[in-house]
Amino acid sequence: MPFNQPLCHLLSCKGLTILLALLSLLACETPKTEPYQDVSFYSDAFATERNYRIYLPGDYAEQPDKQYPVVYYFHGYGGRYKWDAYDLEDDVHYPENGRLEPPFVMEWKKYAQENNLIIVTWDGYEPNLSPGKKEREGIPYGNALPYDYVRAHETEREHWGWDFSAHFRELVKHVDQNFRSIPDRSKRAITGLSMGGLTSYYVAGQNKDLVASVSAFDPAANLPYYGPKGRQVVFPVLEMHRSLKGLAVRLTKTDGDWLKYNNWHMTQLFGSADLSHFETHTADYPNHWTADTEQQLDFHRNEFAKTPALPAKWNHVNPGFDNFEVFGNTFKIKREIPALTLIENASANKLKILSRTFIPDGPIVLEETIAGSTAGSYAPEETYLLRSFNLSTHAFEADNLVSADKEGKLDFALSGGGHWLGINREAEPKAQLGMVFPNNQEHFYFEEGKTESLSFSLVNIGNAPAQEIEIIPVTQHPHLKISPEKITISALEAKAAIDSEQAFQFTFGRYSDSSFVAGVDFVIRADRQVADTLRIMAFAAPKAVYSPRGDLILLDGRTVPEVPIYQQGMDSIVFETLSGGEGNGNGIWEVGEEVLFYLRLPQGLAPKDTNTFHHTYLLNHPAQPYTSVNSMHYLERLNQASCTSETTPITLSPDSPKNQELDLCLRAESLYNDKNDSTSNATIYANQFHFRRVKVGSFKFWI
């Protein structure tokens, strides 16, 4: 083309397209002189520009044909995509922590350059376009916490409903399109600190098709809301293991973390949960931080070398969203009330699906419809029998014969109430067995030294009978004994259910704070082969003494003044006015009333916490006769990093006999801000559970 051609010719549509592509590459690709690049792109999920920083390997410029795995890092409160900080002390007061480029650049640059991987630090601040309260390095903060992070007790704070899980998918797509990342889930990972650590577990669990491993440093001890604006539900961090089956999971906790008690609980719960792989590491560091960063990143590099296949079985929790997808399986749900959708033991042959208003053990949603479409893993145009057992009605619903489409996908529809759904190939009849526990209970508490029964029903959602059935309990917990060693059922016809004539007997020989939960696998054998394995979590409770009636406050819509309450921030006892519950306020628990119980403890966790009252949680509430727990109340742990406690409002059922005395097992929580922990220069936010039995009935609560 002659040099004297008009400029407008050079900027023809084709030329302009090429020019824009070149400019895009220049904007995204990192110059050889810089080991990282700050990148922005337009987010459809947030309808605004979003930022991230990308750290590139040392040979990135010299190896133009080479692709690399990616670790995505989620910062904590106070951080942005350029830094991560809580206080200057993280770099100034502790030079031995090895930070190379204060303030707050972390070790990402060095690790990425030396280990042949890409590290992306994303921006977790909410995309509220209102003027921010402050800024740093010219980057404005928004008017909400990172990740649109509203905690369960924060009823006055506005939740914008931003979907950071959807934004992560956009981020991965942008990185894959503009940098030489390996576009495969087995070569992607997420890690994060504090709020970012909790969000790492959440986002990874919602996007199991994009990542194969996830880790967290000192994750926040919160119960955050998720879901679209106006329909959010609480998804507690300690329950997030439910979505992580099929991923490699790691927890790094510092021994001086102010949230170390939460770390201990998480270690026990995640270690006992139905996870494919879980490991934990304790770092020697006197505060809340990303300590032993290299070891965490080494964990992900080791996972990158494994190239795992998609999991054959998976679990999932979707909080509040009406439409979602898991491994190519799509779900569209219609219901009036916000709820969490739980999918358990999902495979190509069956799945368990139900919705609850809260977890664990919230009421199952009865009024909803579920429209599902499976991944394309079935024989195209072949007929399958879909067989469903309703968990609430305990009855089979009408069978459906469905033909897979040309892509091998099956469409199905379910009503509310929860279901075991069997997907049966007509050409290959097979039994499909599932266990159902009384009241569809999830968390089972067993008192130390006391043998207690766990009964079950067995359902066959397959299209062939099962013979020589054995249910075998297996646990690695050192103090839990289960008998008998197996329960045998001679046969179960297709589309049939049976209540087992025997029950398993659980005995926790000893209670310990360090081993309060046990994972129990029920191995289901039929026709002399393993048909399935189902895991439950069994919780130990110490021997509970009975509290006298005078140690209990019942709130049934009434107000009680001058109640001694320990305030851990002040380390002193104050006298407060308590109110709550729904009823006539006469202090007598009557049919239909929803009440709150406060329990007096002679001694709480803090040395100064004596003879004070504490809110309570009803253990095994799905199995408690004549009562129901229809909602959860969330209370802030004042002066403890906005952590949240749970308390159960208890409703007396209409079928409760008059003058019936109920035996309730309550869990109370005491708190303590420990400033003298030898492993930390921070104040440790400690909590302790206390277990008491109470006998309540239609008598006056005089306190």
Structure description:
The structure is a single chain. With 703 residues, the chain is mainly β. The chain folds into 4 domains: 36-304, 3-Layer(aba) Sandwich (Rossmann fold), CATH 3.40.50; 322-428, Immunoglobulin-like; 448-543, Immunoglobulin-like, CATH 2.60.40; 545-696, no CATH class. Helices cover 11% and strands 39% of the residues. It has 7 helices and 46 strands. The strands form 11 sheets. Strands 1-2-4-3-7-8-11-12 form an 8-stranded mixed β-sheet, with helices on both faces. α3 (108-114) links the parallel β3 (70-74) and β4. The radius of gyration is 27 Å and the shape is globular. The relative contact order is 0.08. The model is unreliable at 1-33, 86-94, 99-105 and 129-133 (pLDDT under 50).
Per-chain topology:
Elements: H1 7-10, H2 13-28, E1 36-43, E2 48-55, E3 70-74, H3 108-114, E4 118-122, E5 135-136, E6 139-140, H4 164-178, E7 188-192, H5 195-206, E8 213-217, E9 225-226, E10 233-234, E11 248-254, H6 260-272, E12 277-283, H7 293-304, E13 314-319, E14 323-326, E15 329-335, E16 340-346, E17 350-356, E18 368-373, E19 383-390, E20 395-396, E21 400-403, E22 411-415, E23 419-425, E24 433-436, E25 443-447, E26 452-454, E27 457-460, E28 466-475, E29 480-483, E30 487-492, E31 496-499, E32 504-508, E33 517-526, E34 529-541, E35 545-546, E36 552-555, E37 559-567, E38 572-579, E39 594-603, E40 610-618, E41 627-628, E42 633-637, E43 643-647, E44 650-652, E45 662-674, E46 684-696
Parallel strand pairs: 3-4, 3-7, 7-8, 8-11, 11-12, 25-34, 35-46
Antiparallel strand pairs: 1-2, 2-4, 5-6, 9-10, 13-16, 14-15, 15-18, 16-17, 17-23, 18-22, 19-20, 19-21, 19-23, 24-27, 26-32, 27-31, 28-30, 28-33, 29-32, 33-34, 36-39, 37-38, 39-40, 39-44, 40-45, 41-44, 42-43, 45-46
